[in-house]
């Protein structure tokens, strides 16, 4: 070989390494396999992130838990390409999913996931005396307020207060 070959003039004495059609087809198949796996992994990661986001909304009482899967499925369909949104006099480019997430975060709390009792401890109904006492107290409280209620209505009131479940 020439120690200082001219880079412009190719050396036609050497045979180039040419892949056969079978080798090219195998490379193409492997590349397609990798691309498919990466796409599936990306979908799985996005779905997991959307599920985490939905769970945080549910924990915060902004979104009902029964609609979690529907929210996650919907979020997967939202286009990721940025679009122009008007903010005051300016136009801002945002991905629709980012706008949707900020919109959901800004919703007021709608679902109470905590206890709703008025500070009363939950009654242990394993003892029948506790049942009688709780209903009796509710009946007496209503009577003191000038209202006659039935024992069934007393139980309903106790449920609303979170005293019984």
Describe what this molecule looks like in 3D.
This protein is mainly alpha-helical. The protein is built from five helices and two strands. A hairpin with a 2-residue loop joins strand 1 and strand 2. The longest helix has 39 residues, at 21-59. It is elongated. The mean pLDDT is 78.
How do the helices and strands line up, and which of them pair or pack?
Elements: H1 21-59, H2 68-77, E1 83-87, E2 90-94, H3 96-105, H4 128-144, H5 151-161
Antiparallel strand pairs: 1-2
Helix pairs in contact: 1-2, 4-5
Provide the spatial order of strands within the biggest beta sheet.
1-2
Shape: elongated
What assembly state would you assign to the polypeptide chains in this entry? single chain
Could you state the order of secondary-structure elements as H and E?
HHEEHHH
Rg estimate, integer Å: 34 Å
Distance between the amino and carboxyl termini: 92 Å
Count of DSSP-assigned helices: 5
Mean of pLDDT = 78
Kindly estimate the percentage of residues that lie in beta strands according to DSSP: 5-15%
User: Structural class per helix/strand content?
Assistant: mainly alpha
Give a quick account of the main beta sheet: strands, pairing sense, barrel closure: 2 strands, antiparallel
Strand segment tally: 2
Helix content: 40-55%
Uncertain residue ranges = none
How would you concisely characterize the structure shown here?
This protein has 165 residues and is mainly α. 53% of the residues lie in helices and 6% in strands.
Features:
165 residues, mainly alpha, two-stranded antiparallel ribbon
